[in-house]
Design goal:
This protein has six helices and 30 strands. By secondary structure, the protein is mostly beta strands. The longest helix has 7 residues, at 5-11. 44% of the residues are buried. The structure holds 2-acetamido-2-deoxy-beta-D-glucopyranose (11 copies).
Length: 598
């Protein structure tokens, strides 16, 4: 039992927390301690070793022509920040820019660290509106650097006025955990190419107003609500202008501590039968439910299984980090059908709950609102709202610590309503269909665990415009897949060999049919990782991780393919192709050589 997976992943690691275990959020990561090995370099040559560059594979941001106006919003060293307020900076829009209208705004997070440190979750807010949620990379003795670039154009309405920028990154620095995070945040404003005033019915036009659905006053842990259990609730009161004609709630979620690996949690019946009191349970299904005025379920989120840079085996994520770990996905819920309910000029509330939750989930949201410039009042009505209760089934078959578990869940939510503005009387329906299935096998008295999980998550927005031939239709299909096999072998003397293989997939198809035309994109992003590590006294004393990733993004006129592989910190191959033309994909084609960057 001593060396069971549960103890390895879940509780042994509690001990390494430098403060008290219950205070820290990153409890379950191992830290690799190759310090002694790396310190065999004389210090002078050690300084000469260039830092390792960590990265998340993602498509580059499509930038307009022209030089951006760039400026540095924050430069800060995050040393011992635990228990201290977030770091604040004055944000001002660019004033000495030759143009004042922007088509793209890009946030650039650049960081460096050296030494030994956990992965830390962090958030960046502008006026209480979260614009980036991310996780730090775990440093090495020889140092690391990484950069995250994010298209923040959708937050434009905020970014054009003076604001307060806040960053919460709770770090602990002491004799053991030496890594300080040296951070630069830059914002780049790209000029407008052409300007067209159109109805923002789902087109890419940023909202006119964004309301923070986050804590009014941040704790040292930022503006997010901290959901501790399935009855706990994050609740925010808000009021909207009475001339809104479209509303989208963007939700950010991340899971930590006892729920960091929620998808591996066994059911409580198994834990109870085996007297496992310290192992996180509540099964392997989680759902974030969003409610309006404490009653209407406006949407549901079945989140992607982001694995942070210290998760499962930290060596898997060096230097290719896990999908979504440097830029956690946010999830959009179209709440336009509910505008009729909230256009009354009164205070309403949005609430967040997490089904089966264990501590702790960080959740907050941004309410994007599009306003009717030609009238001070719009009106609307919710016509239909069907949110059937969640259907969850768990089939358990176990004998002692060995067992198999099948979990499935299903949910669909539909809302339909009309809003009359100067654009006319527009009926909008928003539909979410979600399915979940997981099979978990536990063998070797708990030492070996296999998890195969698939989340399928579709949503659609249909808008009927009165006088337009084209209705607006937007559909998104997502499949999140996770296969995780882990095994531990007792090596005696408090030492274990841990082996883990993982496949993590994020697939997304989007289509949009609007008056402006039809557009479509697809993304297939999959990572395979194989890791081994020898763990002693909660320290990774040796090991190796290898990761292969294939990223394929296609849309009309913009494609991006990347195949990259790394093992033991070294890139084995890295092929990038940016052209959509399939013919050029033929490796033997004479023109292909210049398209690959090895
Ligand atoms: C925004 O901040 C700048 C710099 O502090 C200041 O000069 C300017 O007057 C402010 N603008 C507004 C509208 O408050
Ligand atoms: C759930 O969490 C809240 C907030 O921490 C706490 O007040 C409440 O007692 C908890 N409920 C249960 C059943 O543990
Ligand atoms: C669990 O604890 C109870 C009461 O202490 C004991 O009777 C039972 O045998 C234990 N079961 C296992 C599997 O250890
Ligand atoms: C808007 O259209 C719906 C049907 O699509 C109708 O029921 C409603 O009365 C209309 N509202 C106004 C103000 O015309
Ligand atoms: C999502 O849409 C696809 C294509 O229409 C369908 O095959 C799949 O079953 C849908 N998934 C859910 C959860 O409804
Ligand atoms: C659990 O499975 C292992 C092999 O994986 C076996 O050696 C052990 O006896 C099994 N335990 C029980 C209680 O069946
Ligand atoms: C996306 O579309 C492709 C091609 O139609 C299909 O094979 C794939 O399963 C779809 N992915 C999702 C997430 O629905
Ligand atoms: C991981 O993959 C390797 C190579 O494919 C295999 O030998 C090993 O048994 C796998 N380990 C686990 C725990 O699945
Ligand atoms: C076990 O660890 C102790 C103390 O670290 C050491 O003295 C002993 O030699 C180790 N035994 C084995 C078999 O490695
Ligand atoms: C990993 O790389 C280090 C340094 O280059 C080397 O010493 C070590 O032997 C490698 N490990 C494996 C398993 O290849
Ligand atoms: C790739 O190019 C070679 C040489 O031009 C040709 O023989 C082959 O059929 C092509 N393969 C594909 C899949 O197009």
């Amino acid at each position: 039992m001593d060396n069971s997976i549960f103890l390895l992943i879940f509780s042994l690691l509690l001990l390494q927390s430098p403060i008290s275990a219950s205070n820290l959020h990153k409890l379950k990561q191992l830290r690799s301690d190759f310090h002694s090995q790396e310190q065999t370099f004389p210090s002078s040559s050690s300084n000469a070793i260039p830092p390792t560059k960590f990265f998340e594979v993602t498509k580059p941001i499509k930038l307009p022509k022209g030089k951006p106006c760039s400026y540095n919003v924050l430069t800060h060293d995050f040393a011992f920040t635990y228990g201290k307020p977030p770091v604040f900076a004055n944000y001002t829009p660019p004033s000495n820019c030759p143009y004042q209208s922007f088509s793209k705004i890009v946030l650039e997070w650049k960081a460096a660290s050296k030494g030994r440190q956990f992965d830390r979750i962090f958030g960046v807010w502008v006026g209480g509106v979260e614009i980036l949620r991310s996780c730090t990379a775990e440093p090495r003795a020889t140092g690391i650097v990484w950069t995250v670039k994010k298209d923040i154009t959708r937050y434009q309405s905020l970014l054009l006025s003076n604001q307060t920028l806040a960053v919460s990154l709770r770090n602990v620095v002491d004799g053991t955990y030496t890594g300080i995070y040296h951070v630069h945040i830059n914002v780049h404003f790209y000029p407008h190419e052409s300007k067209v005033e159109t109805l923002a019915s789902g087109s890419e036009i940023p909202a006119d107003l964004i309301l923070p659905i986050s804590k009014n006053i941040p704790s040292d842990n930022g503006f997010w609500f901290e959901i501790q259990n399935s009855t706990d609730k994050g609740l925010k009161e808000f009021k909207i202008p009475q001339n809104a004609y479209k509303a989208v709630l963007e939700v950010y979620v991340s899971f930590h501590e006892n729920d960091e690996f929620w998808y591996t949690n066994p059911p409580d019946s198994y834990l109870n039968a085996n007297n496992l009191t310290d192992t996180p349970g509540h099964g392997a299904f989680r759902e974030v439910v969003v409610t309006l005025d404490k009653k209407n379920v406006v949407g549901s989120i079945w989140p992607f299984t982001v694995i942070y840079t210290g998760g499962v085996n930290p060596l898997l994520w060096r230097p290719i980090t896990g999908i979504g770990s440097f830029d956690l996905p946010s999830y959009d819920i179209d709440v336009t059908p509910f505008l009729g309910t909230i256009l009354d000029g009164k205070v309403h509330s949005l609430g967040f709950k997490v089904t089966n939750a264990l501590n702790v989930w960080y959740i907050d949201a941004n309410l994007h609102l599009w306003l009717d410039r030609k009238s001070s009042r719009t009106e609307g009505k919710l016509v239909n709202h069907i949110a059937k209760p969640l259907v969850e089934s768990v089939v358990s078959d176990f004998n002692g610590l060995n067992g198999t578990f099948s979990i499935s869940a299903k949910r669909s939510i539909l809302s339909n309503g009309w809003v009359r503005s100067s654009f006319g009387n527009i009926s909008t329906s928003f539909v979410q269909d979600l399915t979940y299935s997981s099979s978990m096998v536990i063998e070797k008295n708990g030492d070996k665990q296999t998890v195969n999980q698939i989340i399928s998550f579709n949503d659609s927005v249909h808008s009927k415009l009165p006088s337009h031939v084209h209705n607006f239709i937007s559909e998104t299909q997502r499949t999140f897949s996770l296969n995780l096999d882990s095994d531990t072998l007792d090596k005696g003397n408090g030492t274990y060999l841990a082996v883990a293989n993982i496949t993590l997939g994020f697939d997304e198809n989007k289509s949009k049919n609007a008056a402006s035309g039809f557009s479509k994109s697809s993304l297939k992003n999959v990572q395979d990782g194989q890791g081994t590590m020898v763990v002693k006294n909660n320290l990774v004393i040796s090991g190796v991780g290898a990761t292969q990733q294939e990223y394929k993004y296609k849309s009309k006129g913009f494609c991006y393919f990347r195949k990259v592989s790394a093992s033991n910190y070294t890139i084995l191959y890295d092929k990038v192709r940016k052209l959509c033309n399939k013919r050029l994909n033929n490796g033997s084609h004479s023109g292909s050589a210049s398209l690959f960057f090895l």
